Amino acid sequence: MNDPREVLTTDPYDNVSSDEQDEEAILRDLENVERKRQDLLNRIKEKQESKKLLDPNFQQLQVPCSPVKKTETNVPVAMKKSTNEMEIPHENPNELRIREKSGQLPSNTTTYFMEKFQKSKKEEEGKIQKMENMMNARVHTFQDQGGKQEFKPIQVNEIEEYSNIWLKKRYIPQSELRKMLHNIKILRLSKLFAKVRPPKFSEPQYSNWAALGIISAKGDAKFTTTDKPKKYLKFTMTDFQHKLDVYIFGKGGVERYYNLRVGDVIAILNPEVFPWRPSGKGQFIKSFNLRINHDFKCILEIGSSKDLGFCKVTSRNGTLCNTPINMSKEDRCDYHQEIRFRDNNSKRIELNGSFALGAPTKVENNPTLYRKKNGETRHSRKNRQNFSVSASFGSINKDQFDLRNRHFSNNNSAKAFFDEKFQNPDMLNNLNSKRRKIQDDKKWTRIDKELSKAIGNRASDDLGERSAMEVKQMKRATETTLQSGVIQRLGFDPTHGKIANVLRTTHSKEEKDTLSEQMSGKKDKVNDLLHFRKSHVILAPTRNELIERRDRRERIWQENFGQKRKPISANDLLAIEGSSSDSSSDSELEII
């Protein structure tokens, strides 16, 4: 990180903006200024001419004064006739003025279409000519690189001029490097990514350009999977912030550059831009690679980097991270640095809060502190209550006008509630975590079942391995515990079935026989009850119950309202029932 107080010199190779784009912007501004100037001059001219005109529809007066008789010379008849034949009809001055003002033809005319077509054709021809000129000036090898001159590596400790990278060893002297890179546009990886942009990923518009970076990884030589296999080599370039893959195709290029070392600073002259798209499904970013598909010497080894290192933090599966890092500034990659910061923050009480760090909030969303009008009084001075806090304007408006947030958790839920065709994207965000949670629950359930089985078998096995004396002692202790009433007062078995297991496994043969007989007798009774079925069930009260209810009603009525009469006997009741109909007797008896 650069110190903002430090005065740094401008690096011409670190400027991401394009000089050609700046020049084009300046030219466009000049054209706009010239167009505005011409427009203002035309407006001034029109204002000056309008002062002299009486009729705005005409540029000159039709009748400036009384007409003057013009003298005509004697003209031969034949000449006069020919003159009349060659006369051209005068056009309307209003139409002429409108045409001069506009300076453009209507868009629905053939002439307008032809002008646009010719203009576009000229622009296309200009682009083609520019591309041809650029390709004619292109070279495929660095200057003086084709010679057999070799340089001895020297130990240095300096910043390389073109790549802005510290070197510990230089392969080519600085003076020779300047000659080789003369008239070549230097593009560092940051500037190369700014030039080659999606969606077209077009090549930088320079006749000769070179990409500079550090080799951070290199693979083995392989063959393509096409019908005619071709040998290729892949390595990765980086500048500690960006990384870019480079492919070398062809047997000659692979054999020439197979000995490239990891950590060397190189320059690649005029490589091909090779766009690519990941084959996997899901979220991905379309990007590009560089490709060398010829046998020319287009890679220049400048020196060896001093600060290149690799992240040595091990991941969860036990492998090393190996992300290229700048050892002079950091000891691990950004991802593991962030993880370390989070771990340290979680250990500090003042930073271990319920709210995580986030983006700064707007000023209007924060509450405001105001001083009260009355000022400081004795009571307020004592309690320090001379200030008041008011809610933010944004929160008030949100509560008053955005009613959806009162009843729904977010806007997507509100849309899904009111619109049947809307599919809430929040439902698909955590599907993987939900599936994983369900699978984990099933695994834990299966593990609990296996453990419970193992524990139960172990308990029975333990009792079987014990001696008869130990089993009797366990049985006696269990019976005394049950007789004390502690288990009954608890209301549940705190041993999770171990007491029942002990009682069941410690019975003698006689006790087991008596228990089996008792259980067999109980089973027979239960089976009789289950198989017993009545053919006809009467749920009405019996005749004796009806007689008792009748006598009770009669006795209560005589005690309260009438004289005492002799109670009706059973024979009299039968006689009464015989004389009356079945329906009437049933209705009288049913009244209680």
From TrEMBL:
Residues 162-274 form the MCM10 OB-fold domain. Its main location: nucleus. This is Uncharacterized protein. SUPFAM superfamilies: Nucleic acid-binding proteins (SSF50249). Belongs to the MCM10 family. GO terms for molecular function: DNA replication origin binding; single-stranded DNA binding; zinc ion binding. InterPro entries: Mcm10, NA-bd_OB-fold, OB_MCM10, Znf_Mcm10/DnaG. Keywords: Coiled coil, DNA replication, Metal-binding, Nucleus, Zinc, Zinc-finger. It is found in: Nucleus. Residues 303-348 form the Zinc finger Mcm10/DnaG-type domain. Residues 23-50 form a coiled coil. GO terms for cellular component: chromosome, telomeric region; nuclear replication fork. Pfam families: OB_MCM10, zf-primase. One of its GO terms (biological process) is double-strand break repair via break-induced replication. Residues 1-23 are annotated as: Disordered.
